[in-house]
Amino acid sequence: MDLTVIPGSRIVEVARLAFATPDVDFLCFGESDQPSPAVAREAAIAALREGNILYPDVRGLPALRQALSGYLGGLHAKPVAESRIQVTASGMAAISIAMAAVVRAGHRVVMHSPTWPNIANAARLRGAVVDEIDLDAQPDGGFRLDLDRLDTMMNGARAFVLNSPGNPTGWTATEPELRLIREIVQRHGAWLISDEVYSRLIYDGSTAAPSLLDIAEPDDRIIVCNSFSKTWVMTGWRLGWLVVPEGTGELIADIVEAVHSGVASFTQHGGIAAIQDTATMERFRAHCATGRELASQALAGLNGVRYQPPVGAFYAFLAVEGLDDSLDLAKKLVTRHGVAVAPGVAFGSAGEGWLRVCFAQSAGLMERAMQRLRDGIRAEMGS
User: Fold this and answer.
1) pLDDT tens string 297-318
2) Distance between CA 202 and CA 96 in Å, rounded?
3) Of 220, 231, 155, 156, which Cα lies nearest the Cα of 194?
4) What is the 3-state secondary structure (H, E, C) of the chain?
5) What's the mean pLDDT in 168-186?
6) Is the peptide bond before 343 cis (omega within 30 degrees of 0)?
7) pLDDT at 2 over 90
């Protein structure tokens, strides 16, 4: 049939195998085993009981937009007007809306790699040409973005997509780097789309990762995407938002109307309650910090593995010496060793030779799963 074809998800491929295999520990999805905030669940249930089931304002409930405006203004160096906020049906929907607004067939979109594959596919669905700039892997297992190379690649590009803190690497741009990225993209007359869904999951003692909302002017050609999924442990709620340039709110709302026509109001009421629940957010970050430490302990001293604890997000991204088929290894880890992790190649060719582990899990699960992973890597790679 004459349908659009995009690359399938290797993460889903591993997950489907794991679902069909008994006794497998899941560390392959970007999802925690912790519950969503009780106040959010209660608010959504109350909204349903009160009959909040009609079509909502496509821009998002005014109360949620106002809550997000206050939240972002308190978190970042510059205020964010409520008129610049668009509620979306998930963080992925936010990225798709940004692409629909900015990208046309034949445009070139630059993004760093390895990165979450859905971002590139959203650009491809718009008919864009995706150019990847590989993050430079450092000897200690960390990463850096070569800004001189980015400057060269942005010549003639329509947009640059930034993901910081990044999935799967945990790479997090510093504020000076963000200022340079903004300057480069502006100089080339391009758009900057920033995926900041992991902004609160940072482990250096900061309240949040450096953000373009700290430095950008309201009328910059910058769109910031975010979500309730990670910060508030609300992956299945499918609730996200955009911060768009001043004066473009109605134009973006028209695109949302054509794509998914708004977000269920009872879901949005859950989001309003979640924003007010700062305790859950802090507790979840501490939970992830514990998982990060458990992953580091399990990977320490493992021959043939190079790993550095990430600055942000909730993934351990580890290089395995001699690994040239991460998908094959990930499948063997499922069927032979009872642990599901994401193959590095799922995040682009720059990810081949690596594995991604989601450490946002309970201590018991982490300890068992990481032991299975250690045993599996030793057995399959001879390390």
Assistant:
1) 999 989 999 999 999 999 999 9
2) 25
3) 220
4) CCCCCCCCCHHHHHHHHHHCCCCCEECCCCCCCCCCCHHHHHHHHHHHHCCCCCCCCCCCCHHHHHHHHHHHHHHCCCCCCHHHEEEECCHHHHHHHHHHHHCCCCCEEEEEECCCHHHHHHHHHCCCEEEEEECEECCCCCEECCHHHHHHHCCCCCEEEEECCCCCCCCCCCHHHHHHHHHHHHHCCCEEEEECCCCCCECCCCCCCCCHHHCCCCCCCEEEEEECCCCCCCHHHCCEEEECCCCCHHHHHHHHHHHCCCCCHHHHHHHHHHHHCHHHHHHHHHHHHHHHHHHHHHHCCCCCEECCCCCECCEEEEEECCCCCHHHHHHHHHHHHCEECEEHHHHCHHHCCEEEEECCCCHHHHHHHHHHHHHHHHHHHCC
5) 98
6) no
7) no
pLDDT band at 153 (very low <50, low <70, confident <90, very high): very high
Amino acid at residue number 224: V
Structure tokens at 272: 């309003």
Tokens of 88: 């979306």
Cα–chain center distance at 77: 22
Compute the distance between CA of residue 339 and CA of residue 14 in angstroms, rounded to an integer.
10
| Residue 85 structure tokens | 């906020």
Closest to 351 (Cα-Cα) out of 324, 311, 378: 324
Which pLDDT does position 4 carry in this prediction?
A: 87
**HSE-up of residue 346 (Cα within 13 Å, Cβ side):** 29
Domains for the chain: give ranges and CATH numbers: 10-36+279-381 (3.90.1150.10), 38-277 (3.40.640.10)
Burial of 125 (0-12, 13-18, 19+ CB in 10 A): middle
